[in-house]
Amino acid sequence: MALYESKTELWDLDINVIQPEGKGPDPATDGNSSTEPFRDAFQRYIQPCLAELLGSSLFIFVGCLSVIENTEGTGRLQPALAHGLALGIVIAVGGHFNPAVSVSVFLIGGLNITLLVPYILAQMLGVSKLLARTVISPSMNYAKVSGAAFDTVQADTQIVPATVAEVIMTLFLTMVVCMGAVNGRTRSLLAPLCIGLTVTADILAGGAVSGACMNPARAFGPAVVADYWSYHWIYWVGPMSGALLTASFIRLLLGDEKTRVLLI
User: Fold this and answer.
1) Residues 87 and 195: beta-carbon distance below 8 Å
2) Could you list the residue ranges that cross the membrane (predicted)?
C-alpha cells in the first residue's frame, strides 16, 4: 500500500505529513504506468474489502470466544473487555467492521457509495464463529444452546427495552466513530482507544438488557452457525436506527462545515 493512500475511508492519511514535499517517490509516477490502473483499483476497492473481511473475522472471533464458554464467574466483564480491546486494536489498523458504522460513516460523507455494499458483505462473511467453535470443542463448555448468538431477549415483553437499548448504545458507538475518526474538526488519534472503550462501556451497561450487540455482523455470523434466529431482527433494527440518528445529528448540528447541512 502506498503511503499516500489509506486502505479504508475511515483514516485519511496526508502524504505531506508522512513524506516531506520533494522527497521520495512521486505517487503519480511511481512504478510502472501500465499497471497503475490495476494497482489503484486494488488499493481503492479490493484492499479495503479484504481488510473488512479479515478484521471483522478477528474481532468477532475474539468476541465469540469470550462468551461461548460458561462465564458465570466473570459475568459481563470478560466479554466487555474482550470486545472493547479487540475492536480498538483492529480499528487502529483501519476499517469499520460493523455495518451500522459503515452506514453512519457513509451518510456523513466519509465512505464512497461504491464501497458501502461491498463493506457490509465483507463484514457479514467472516468465519469467526466457526473458528471459535473449533478451538472450544467439548460440548460441556457451552453455557447455552445458542453458543455465541444473542439470546438475551426471550419474551415479547423484552422487545421494546432491548430495541431501545440497541438504538441508544449504537448511537453512542457510531457517534464516537464519526466524530472521533471522520469529522474533520474533531478527529483524533485517540479514536481507536475511545471506540474500544465505548464498546466496553455499552456492554457493561446494557448487556443484561439486550446483550449489547451494536453490530449486525456480530449477531448474524453466530446466528447462522448456531441456527438461532429468535428475535434476531432486533439486532438489525436497533443498530441501524442508531446509525441513522447519528448521521442526522452530525449532518444537522454537530458536523464541521463540510459535513453540516444547516450552516448556522
Assistant:
1) yes
2) 49-68, 80-97, 104-122, 159-182, 189-213, 233-254
pLDDT digits (tens, 9 = 90+) for 82-139: 999 999 998 877 789 999 999 999 999 999 899 999 999 998 886 655 555 555 555 5
Helices 191-206 and 77-93: crossing angle in degrees, nearest 10, is 160
Query: Phi, psi (5° rounding) for residue 69?
Result: -95, 170
Q: Mutual orientation of helices 99-107 and 216-226 as an angle, nearest 10°?
A: 150
Query: Can you tell me the distance from the alpha carbon of 185 to that of 204, in angstroms, rounded to the nearest whole number?
Result: 30
d(CA 99, CA 105) in angstroms, rounded, equals 10
Locus of grid cell 447519528: 246
What is the reported pTM?
A: 0.80
Other CB atoms within a 10 A radius of the CB of residue 158 amount to 16
Helices and strands in the chain: count of H runs, count of E runs: 11, 0
Residue 33 has pLDDT above 50, yes or no: yes
Long-range contact list for 29-35, CB < 8 A, 24+ apart?
A: 30/2
Instruction: Please give the single-letter amino acid code of residue 114.
Output: T
C-alpha cell at 124: 457479514
